[in-house]
Structure formats: structure tokens, C-alpha cells
Amino acid sequence: MGTALYNEHFGFRERPFSLSPDPEFLFWSKVHTRALSVLEYGLMTRAPLTVVTGEVGTGKTTLIQELLRTIDDDQIVGLISNARGDRGDLLRWVLGAFDVAAPASADYVTLFQRFQDFVLAEYAAGGHVVLIVDEAQNLGVETLDELRMLTNINSGKDELLQIVLVGQPELRDLIRRPELRQVAQRVTSTYHLEPMDLGSTLNYVHHRLKHAGGTGKEFTHAAICHIHEEAEGIPRMINKLCDLALVYASSAGETTVEIGIIKELIRDGLILKPYREPHVLTNPIDGSGEAAE
């Protein structure tokens, strides 16, 4: 029995645990609220660089989408995902994010001048340019430093370009490297999106069930606790487990997901956990680029 039929079985209007990022389903846990506040603070204060990190599946992309929904009309936003390459490639990514045309034969100086002209023209028209780079941990040291150089475009008193870096935890360690100390010095605000605790997971599951038209009681407390343990508090993994659990329950004619169903789908090998090397975050980045004590 597929997901469409479990919707009918449980009376849902739509899948409560779709894996696609959907701001309509965004659950405002404490960590997600703080992360969005940091992003909004960075934009409000015209911070040159804002950094938000988190493990895969913690909701970073959904936060970006929510930020884009609420951004001011005078802010011209460009979004880059999974950019790679040298500094010339970076400028083409950046220009493409803002739909600024660039000749294929243009050299680095020409590309930089074209972007600078774009930023200055938007500023003269009362606009403010914001570049959001998702999966920024994929950028190398030279590319990150090149992004920092872009923030030097200014009018003498105003920051005309803001950059928001979003990525996995290793992005923070990358920025702390000695050769990127000037990048760290430009970081005005930074936040690490931690996995949810058990209380947040319970509220998260209830929230999504109700938002989809359910009662919020389709899962027992014990089942959600086991889901939280298996998912390690990662929203994307919680969604996978809950979605499959609803398929199992509906195929068995059950109206409630018990802990036994969760254990059964785990035994059946339907969930492949990604391997993650142990990662210990060092102290937060402060305004001077040094690790705060």
C-alpha cells in the first residue's frame, strides 16, 4: 500500500512527512528559531558574512527557503548551491545567480567589473545585494577567500554586498584555517544548527501530523521515542522513519503506529544511515576571527 493510500487510511490531506523541504511544514524548534534569527540579524545589520552550519538533514535548506519568503523588497537575492571551481568559475556562478549575462570569453577582471557594476547599480537604485551560498563547505580555501574579496565592494560607508554561507559542520573548521583569518574576521554572526532533542522531536511529529489533517495521535509516545533514537534527532531521518511507519501501519490495517512497527521496518533494513565521522565543534568564531573562550 503506497503513501497515497495511507493518506486515505489515516485521513490526511497530504503526506505529513515528505522529504522535500516545505516551509509550510516548518516546525519552529528552539534551534531553528535561533538559526533564522541569526540569518535575519545578519541581513538587518548588513553583516558582510553570516555563517549557518548543521549536519545533513537538519533543515538548513528549509531555513533558506523561509528566509527568501520573508526578505525585504529592496534586497536583491542570488542563491548558489554546490558551487565548485576556481575563482573565475566562482564569478560566473555569482553572476548567474543574479541573472547577469557574461560573455564566455570574458577574463577574470571583466567578470569582476561586471559584478561590481551590478552591485553599484542596485545600490544607486535603492537596492541591496545579498548572495546566499548553500553547501558552502564544498568551496576551497581560495574560493572562500575570493568571496571575502567580493565584500570589499562598497561605497565608503555602506556594505553593498552581504554574503550568507550555509553548510555542513566542516565549513566552520575550514573558515578557522590560518590562511582564511581575513574571512573569519568578516564573519559577524554564526550559528550551528544542532539536531533536535526528544521534546522537540515529539512536538515536531505531532505538528506535522496535525498540519496534514491528522489528529497528532497516529504515533504512540514510545514509537516516537524510538524514532528519535534511531534518527539521532535529525529531521530528515525522522521524516523517513515516520513515512515508512505509516506505510507499514496502513498495510496492516492499523490506525496507530506502535513501537513494534518501528522495530520491524528497522529490522527489514529499509533505513540506511549515512556514515558520519565523529566531528567535534571547536569554540564559536568571534568577530576578531579568533576562537572565543
TrEMBL record:
Record-linked PANTHER family: GENERAL SECRETION PATHWAY PROTEIN A-RELATED, PHOSPHORIBULOKINASE _ URIDINE KINASE FAMILY
Organism annotation: Sulfitobacter sediminis
Protein name from the UniProt record: ExeA family protein
A Pfam family annotated for this UniProt entry: AAA_22
Domain of life the protein comes from: Bacteria
InterPro entries with a match to the protein in the record: AAA+_ATPase, AAA_22, ExeA_AAA_ATPase_DNA-bind, P-loop_NTPase
Domain AAA+ ATPase as annotated: residue spans: 46-190
